[in-house]
Structures are given as C-alpha cells and as structure tokens.
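Postdoc handover notes: sequence design on the structure in folder B. Input tokens:
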C-alpha cells in the first residue's frame, strides 16, 4: 500500500514538473526577450552606465548590470525573473500536492492565469519583487520537512531573495517581515497516531491547555511587531549602505513626488496654492483648477502641468525638499488633505486596463516581436479583463480588501484549532491539531505580507497602477490555498471521525503544509 501511494505521489510530482517546464518554455517564447517601458529603459540605461539614481531603488539596475555583461541586452534579467516565477510556483505546487493533488495542480494553474502570467513579461521592479518573494516562499515551504544543514541550505537563498525583493521597492520591506517568520519559526512535525507517543501528546496538550487564546494572540502580535521593526531597520540600513556608499546613487528627491501631489490635492480643495516659489497668475490658476488628478501625480511631472516640477527644480525648492510646505498644508487644511487621500483611495477601486503596456522601441532592438504566443496571451487577457465580474479583479483596492479578509479568516481558523487543542478529546491527537493551528498561522503570515505590501499604496501612494499589487495577489492566493487545504483536511477527518491530519508521502517524515 505504501509503495503504491509513493508511486502515485511521484507521478504527481513528475506531472507538475513537466507542466512547469512547458509553462516556462511557452512564456519564454511568447515574451522573449522581455517587455520594456519607460521605467525599464531608465533602469537599463543606469545598468549599462553603472551610474545610478534613487528614483528607482538601484538594486534591480545593479543586478541588470552584471546580467548584461553575461548576456548583452534584456534577456538576462528576463530569464532571471521568469525562472524565479516558475520555480516558485513549482515548489509550492509540489508542496501542496502532498496534501491534495488537486491543490498542486490548482497552484500551477494560477501561474497560467490571465492575471498573473503577464507579470514576468515586464521588466519592472514590481515583477522582480513578485518573483523573488514567490520563489523564497517556495523554498521556505520546501524547508519545512528538513532539519539541520538541509534546512539551512534552503533557507539561506530564501533569505537572500527576500532581501533582494525588499530592496527593490520601498514598501516591500514591510511585506518581507511576515515571511521571515516562516524561516525563524518552524512548525511542529506532524506525526500519525501510530508514530506519536502518548508522552509527547500529553506534553503538547499540557502546553496548549495553559495558553489562553488572548495570550497566544498577544505573543504572536509582539513577535510580529519585533520582526517588522527589525526588518525595516535592517533593510533601511542595507539600502542606505548600498545606495549612498557602495553605488553613490544620485539623489533625485523622489519623496517630493508624494509631497507635491498632496499639496496640489489640498490646493484643489481650498483654492490656496501651497507650493513654494513664485508663480504667475495663470500658473496659480492652473495649479488650483487644472493640474490635480486624484489617481496619480503624473500630470505634475510629465503631463499637462509638467511646468510644476520644472519650476520647482529650477528654483532649487525640489532639491531643498518640500517637507515644510507639505506639513504646513496638512496642518492648515487637515480636512482637505483627508478628502484628497480618500479620493485617491477610491481610485484604487476602479477597474484598470489589463492589456499589456506597449513596449518601448528598445524592446524590438533587442529582439522582441509580437509573435503568435504573445498575441494569443494578449487577446486572452483582454477578453478576461472585459468579462463581467472577472473584470472587477483588476481593481487594485479590491485585493487590499481580500488581504484583510484572508487575515481575519486565518486568525479565526487558528483560534478554532487552538480551542480544539485545549479540549480533552484532543489529547491523543494533539500533534495533528498543533499542525493545523500552525497552518492557519502560516496562512496569516502570507495574507499579512500581501496586506503590508499594498497598504502603503493606500496611505501614501502617488499612482494607482495594477502592478503595484502584484505581490498582494500572490500572497492572498497562497494563503487561500493553505486555508483551503486545512478546511479540506478537516472535512475529510470529520467524515472519518478523527481530527484533521494531512496525508504526506511515505518514506519521508510527515509535517504540516507549509507554503
């Protein structure tokens, strides 16, 4: 019997591997050698010159510089992002297949979905963050069944990937913190009733019985808070050392984009221009009545009101910084500021176009052509993005709400498992109940990671592009699969009259699902 189960599991693993290779080959052919927009071109030029600015975090351009030396052009970074994308999905699919083969295939199916398949096509820092975090999650999932040096071999590259992703976007450092808990907190091994001794079960039962739900939640919140603070501090230090000292990145005053956006948003509601400097009557009128767009600050720099940034740079106010006039505008008109931020947040709930951005001409210079694969994927994405109900999934703000809801569900599931461990009926199966409680906790980590990634966009965002919630989508998806596996295992166990336990392949130690 064990032999047949092992053969079945190995067949699932081979099938998933084959589908992953096919997916990688198909997307590599369709998107080769990667699509570039103005942001990509800017970072590619920095990579070629080995001269960086801080408008975009320089880590991607730094990686691109060395990949360009290995393979000139865009193909090196494209292959890296695409490889991390598919390897992450493969690791997670293999892991989920141990619980339910259908969950493994569903995980891989998501990689082909119209919402996600375009992510590795674009040479954006958003795509790099998604692929780094996804692959790191897969490595952490694979490390769950290892101990000692084998576990360290998997966790070490996962931590490097998390650091790379955290350095690639300013808000990503917050999202990396909950994922770190997957590395520093190893869930208890799941053992069957035949394998678990009565003494171990009794010890686990006693431990859970002493811990109230409030104490467990409080300890978890405290632990998470410490990890977030430590992650932000360590990543900020690493970013400062890399950008200011190692690379000597030119300071561009990128934070001024937020401040200018807020000041003009307040001006549009109060009729008072808070931007520093001398402005003509016509410019004052335009700043108050024409320049404000609630969905982005772009009009102040590249659009119809580009004179705003040009004048601030020419007068030196941009270089000096807009912090003081920004704080003055908020303090003088708090209601107008809150109204402006709410107007921006509402823009996140509007559906955004899902069609591919038009690649810059430099993409064609390095070999990109709109082949049959590209056209088929583009048409599929456009069809889905225009379909009723499905089109709503292209609302960035909706994924923030999904992340919040998933956090709540994970917390409720964990609380339920904790209560079941505190009952006498749990004594003989406490190890399995502990595993299920750990699964809910891990789902919460992923959901919280996605929430922390997108939440700064709501509070201090300056644009509302869909790519800004890439990782939020991935994190919510992983958390949902973990919760689905937990729920399915509990449903099966109820029919069998036992506590939930996850089937694992024979010949390896059983453990809770980890993703």
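Designed sequence:
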């Amino acid at each position: 019997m064990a032999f047949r189960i092992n053969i079945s599991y190995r067949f699932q693993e081979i099938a998933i591997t084959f589908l992953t290779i096919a997916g990688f080959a198909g997307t590599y052919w369709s998107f080769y050698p990667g699509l570039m927009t103005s942001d990509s071109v800017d970072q590619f030029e920095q990579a070629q010159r080995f001269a960086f600015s801080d408008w975009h975090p320089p880590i991607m351009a730094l990686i691109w510089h060395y990949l360009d030396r290995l393979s000139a052009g865009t193909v090196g970074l494209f292959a890296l992002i695409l490889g991390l994308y598919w390897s992450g999905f493969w690791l997670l699919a293999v892991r989920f297949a141990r619980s339910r083969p259908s969950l493994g295939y569903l995980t891989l199916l998501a990689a082909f979905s119209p919402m996600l398949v375009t992510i590795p096509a674009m040479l954006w820092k958003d795509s790099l963050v998604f692929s780094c975090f996804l692959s790191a999650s897969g490595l952490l999932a694979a490390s769950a069944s290892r101990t000692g040096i084998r576990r360290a071999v998997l966790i070490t590259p996962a931590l490097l990937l998390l650091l790379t992703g955290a350095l690639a976007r300013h808000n990503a450092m917050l999202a990396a913190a909950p994922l770190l808990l997957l590395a520093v907190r190893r869930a208890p091994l799941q053992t069957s009733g035949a394998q678990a001794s009565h003494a171990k079960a009794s010890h686990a039962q006693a431990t859970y019985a002493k811990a109230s739900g409030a104490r467990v939640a409080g300890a978890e919140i405290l632990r998470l808070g410490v990890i977030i603070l430590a992650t932000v501090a360590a990543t900020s230090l690493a970013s400062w050392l890399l950008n200011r000292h190692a690379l000597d990145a030119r300071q561009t005053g990128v934070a001024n984009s937020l401040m200018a956006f807020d000041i003009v948003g307040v001006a549009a509601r109060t009729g008072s221009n808070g931007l520093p400097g001398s402005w003509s009557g016509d410019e004052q009128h335009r700043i108050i009545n024409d320049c404000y767009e609630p969905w982005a600050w772009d009009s102040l720099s590249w659009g119809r009101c580009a004179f705003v940034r040009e004048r601030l740079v020419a007068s030196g106010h941009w270089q000096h910084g807009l912090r003081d006039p920004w704080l003055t505008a908020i303090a003088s008109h708090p209601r107008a500021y809150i109204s402006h931020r709410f107007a921006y947040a509402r823009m996140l709930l509007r559906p955004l176009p899902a069609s591919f951005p038009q690649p810059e001409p430099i993409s064609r210079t390095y070999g990109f052509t709109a082949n049959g694969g590209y056209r088929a994927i583009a048409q599929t994405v456009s069809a889905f993005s225009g379909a009723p109900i499905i089109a709503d999934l292209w609302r960035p703000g909706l994924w923030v709400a999904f992340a919040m809801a998933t956090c709540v569900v994970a917390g409720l599931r964990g609380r339920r498992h904790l209560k079941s461990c505190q009952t006498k009926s749990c004594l003989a199966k406490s190890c399995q109940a502990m595993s299920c409680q750990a699964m809910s906790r891990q789902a919460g980590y992923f959901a919280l990671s996605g929430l922390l990634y997108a939440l700064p966009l709501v509070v201090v965002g300056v644009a509302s592009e869909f790519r800004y919630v890439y990782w939020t989508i991935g994190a919510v998806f992983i958390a949902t699969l973990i919760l689905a596996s937990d729920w399915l295992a509990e449903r099966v166990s109820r029919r069998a009259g036992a506590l939930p336990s996850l089937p694992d392949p024979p010949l390896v130690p059983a453990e809770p699902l980890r993703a």
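Context for whoever picks this up: Confidence is low (pLDDT under 50) at residues 1-5, 187-206, 424-431, 498-515. Don't rerun without checking with the PI first.
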